[in-house]
Amino acid sequence: MTMNRYTLLGRSGLRVSPISLGTMTFGTEWGWGAEEQTAQRLFDLYVDAGGNFIDTADGYTEGTSERWVGKFVAQRGLRDRLVIATKYTYNAEPGNPNAGGNHRKNLLRALDGSLKRLATDYIDLYYLHTWDRMTPVDEVMRAMDDAVRAGKIRYVGLSDTPAWFAGRAQTLAEWRGFEPVAAMQLEYSLIERHAEHEFADLAAQLGMGLVPWSPLGMGVLSGKYRPSRDGAPSHVSGSGRLASLASAPPPGFDKLTERNFRIVAELEQVANDVNRPMAQVALNWLYQKRGVSSIIVGATKPEQLQQTLGSLDFMLAPEQIARLDAVSAPARPFPYYMFADGHQARIHGHVEVASKPAAYDRPVVVPAPEANAANATTR
Ligand SMILES: NC(=O)c1ccc[n+]([C@@H]2O[C@H](COP(=O)([O-])OP(=O)(O)OC[C@H]3O[C@@H](n4cnc5c(N)ncnc54)[C@H](OP(=O)(O)O)[C@@H]3O)[C@@H](O)[C@H]2O)c1
């Protein structure tokens, strides 16, 4: 179960575990998280298994997530060994438009708040959390670069932005000498594959590591939910975050659908074939996708995390991946259907033309020392 290897985050030299610990469930403020004692057990389980990559955000559970992460890290004296990622964007003071958004004033306000809650003097990876649809890209990248030069952050990340925004950010960084974007965080799983249209190529061409969130579709891909006879999401069986929100799911939480249960059915068959839990198979499938550096898993119970941390102890065969690819294939709207093989054959005169490999494709794997991987460093 020990995660005995690290990957490089995008084109940076930062070593991160292939599985990252999501801490959005640290705290009960949102109604579906864990109490402090359980959160601490999740944290201990993760770092004792060799994990070094922790994900939080300034707004998670009203600041509790960051506070507990800071406390747990300090208690075990792990600050230097861990890579702590947090995020800014969401408003912290209703009525004040400058207490939210992607702009410089909010970035600096939020960053100082995160440093205090995390009880640290630097953040390893600082993400813009979600595009605000108005702040210019150059303002974001310049403000991020200033924060790197001020020693408050080490690496820059983006989350939930359009691909054009990320492409422009990276190009500005390259041409103006700003700290480049090392990581791109997106929802990506067997039930949410739209990221593949743009972001796999973005990662490969521009050197950003993809860091998928909600890789189990918030629990659907563990197989614990079963469809109801009448198909109504609020009548499904199984308990957890999605069941508790099924009668009025907020945007993005409406995952108990007929389509998703079809994917779960095929996942169950593949899981039976390889004799592994469905959650492990879903994460293994995702880790083999192009450009993925590290997957952020969430948990409310230690036994869940125990299971997901074993997801990379085996490898699905190409035939099993193909079955999962087929059942979960995303629709190909315009212009993406034009990039499919059949359409491209008309461009290349029905001759097979191999393109050059991208400058950056899979992250490099850095093996940890065999002995005592939990305390491994990767010098
Ligand atoms: N950048 C962004 O916009 C963004 C958005 C969302 C999340 N994130 C990050 O991504 C992290 C992970 O997101 P997520 O929690 O939605 O991920 P997820 O891994 O898809 O779902 C985790 C949830 O699934 C259930 N679960 C996990 N393992 C299980 C198992 N083995 N068996 C049965 N149920 C299991 C648990 O919920 P229940 O016990 O309640 O069923 C758990 O909390 C977050 O903590 C956060 O750090 C980022």
From TrEMBL:
Low complexity bias spans: 237-247
Which segments carry the region annotation Disordered? 229-251
* Origin superkingdom: Bacteria
Q: What Pfam families would the database entry show?
A: Aldo_ket_red
GO MF terms, alphabetically ordered: oxidoreductase activity
Write out the entry's keywords from A to Z: Oxidoreductase
Query: What is the gene name?
Result: yajO_3
Query: Might you report a single GO cellular component term?
Result: cytosol
Query: Known EC number(s)?
Result: 1.1.-.-
Classification from the root reads:
Bacteria, Pseudomonadati, Pseudomonadota, Betaproteobacteria, Burkholderiales
Q: Which InterPro entries does the record cross-reference, listed alphabetically?
A: AKR_Detox_Biosynth, NAD(P)_OxRdtase_dom_sf, NADP_OxRdtase_dom
Which species?
Paraburkholderia humisilvae
Protein name, UniProt field: 1-deoxyxylulose-5-phosphate synthase YajO
- Endpoints of the signal sequence: none
Ranges where the NADP-dependent oxidoreductase domain occurs: 18-328
